[in-house]
Amino acid sequence: MKKRALWLLLPLVIAGLYGSLFLHYGQAPTVVRQIHVAVPKRLIVTATNADIVVTTTQAKKVLVTESANVAYTPQTIHNGAVTQGRSQVSWVQHFFPTRVQLKVAIPRTYSGRLVIHSASGAVMVRDSHSGAMRISTQSGAISGNLSAKRLQVRAASGAVTLAVAGVSADSTVTTQSGAVDLHLTNLRQVSVDARSASGAVKLSGMSTRRFSEHHWHGGQAESPLLAVQTQSGAIKVR
User: Does 45 map to a domain?
Assistant: First the structure.
């Protein structure tokens, strides 16, 4: 009888132990470093397993904030390259979520080139402006709202959900596996060529021409071209 009671108590003991460890190792990220850097003509933000958040600031310099819930050693920032630092995970922390965030606030008047890449992590862009913007992920979603004259977005595995303004040059949005949902504020000033190998295509708010079930063209032919393509995923442009 006593042995049976002990076996019944064992799951409660394990759950309590896991909960205690989670409170210690699974907490939200805390700020490791916050630093201002000079505004470069080309700003490159690169991460391996961190989520990247790009916002704007009223300041005249770029503000970089790095947060983590594991041991983290920041990298030196030079020549406009902001690279995720090195995170160190103990054997216990492998049982809990590792959370690393790289947040970059750029001046609202920035007109240079912005390059963002995450190998394994999401990218969120909030009210960001640049002359040209390139965003890519290997595994992670891309979302937010932005303004750029030229835009290049590529997600190998992840959805793309963006509100886009200011496009005035040929641009591209592509995914290997993930849906694309675009809201264009200057819809009448661009033409859209949307095709999906496997997924529905829907263009709204513009004159359209259907080439096939998965290939549609919209807008005026003489306008800058926004090419949207997916291998596996629906496309919606409005």
Answer: no
Rg of the chain over all Cα atoms, to the nearest angstrom: 22
Flag whether pLDDT at 162 surpasses 60.
yes
- The total of structural domains in the chain comes to 1
Contact 173, 228 (CB under 8 A): yes
Question: Reduced to 3 DSSP states, what percent helix, strand and coil does the chain have, rounded to the nearest 5?
Answer: 15, 55, 30
- Does residue 68 belong to any structural domain of this protein? no
Per-residue model confidence as pLDDT tens digits over 49-77: 899 999 999 999 999 999 988 777 888 88
The verdict on residue 219 lying in a domain is: yes
Residues in the chain: 238
Distances (CA, A) of 53 to 62, 113, 122, 142: 13, 17, 8, 10
H/E stretch holding 22 reads helix 2-25
Per-residue tokens: 153: 């977005």
Would you state the structure tokens that stand for residue 224, as one six-digit string? 């800058």
Q: What is the residue range of 149's domain? A: 141-238
Q: Is 198 exposed, middle or buried (0-12, 13-18, 19+ CB in 10 A)?
A: exposed
Helix (H, G, I), strand (E, B) or coil at 93: helix
Instruction: Give a yes or no: residue 175 inside a domain.
Output: yes
